[in-house]
Amino acid sequence: MKTAGGIALATVAQSLPAWPAREPSGPDAPIRVAVFLDPSFPSVGITIDRQTLQESLTDLDAEFIDANALESRLLTTNFDLFLNPYGSAFPKAAFASISGFLLGGGGWVNLGGVPFSIPVHKTQDGWAQETPQTAYHKQLGITQAFPVSTGEVASYQPNPGLEWTRGLSGE
Question: What is the percent of the chain with per-residue pLDDT over 90, rounded to a whole number?
Answer without folding.
Answer: 47
